[in-house]
Amino acid sequence: MLEKEVEQYLVRRIKELGGMAEKFTSPGRRSVPDRLVSLPGGRIVFVELKAPGKKPTPGQLKDHERRRVMGFTVLVLDSKEAVDNAFPI
Fold first, then answer.
1. Sequence-distant (≥ 6) Cβ neighbours of residue 77 within 8 angstroms
2. pLDDT tens per residue across span 16-66
């Protein structure tokens, strides 16, 4: 399975939950999470998507930790099952 398949699945799942999974880019900054997920009730989650078994780069891990220190939720998801577990219906 490819990373893009996990990403497409995430977008569908979040839509089913009534939320949005927007592509997240930040000009001039590398290593930002792939998607900004907005869910009903005001919940915001940053999601890094990977192919099964792949891990975030050191730069991505540093960015994730920075966001977590600020109180944000950052998830690394590498399968459809991981998406289902993170965002159950």
1. 6, 10, 47, 48, 49, 50, 83, 86
2. 999 999 999 999 999 999 999 999 999 999 999 999 999 999 999 999 999
User: Given 3.30.420.40, 2.40.50.100, 3.40.50.300, 3.40.1350.10, which CATH number is that of 3-82?
Assistant: 3.40.1350.10
Q: Are 50 and 6 in contact (CB under 8 A)?
A: yes
State the residue for tokens 């780069």: 57
Output phi, psi for 48, to 5 deg: -100, 125
Sequence spans of domains, the chain: 3-82
Note the pTM of the prediction, 2 decimals. 0.94
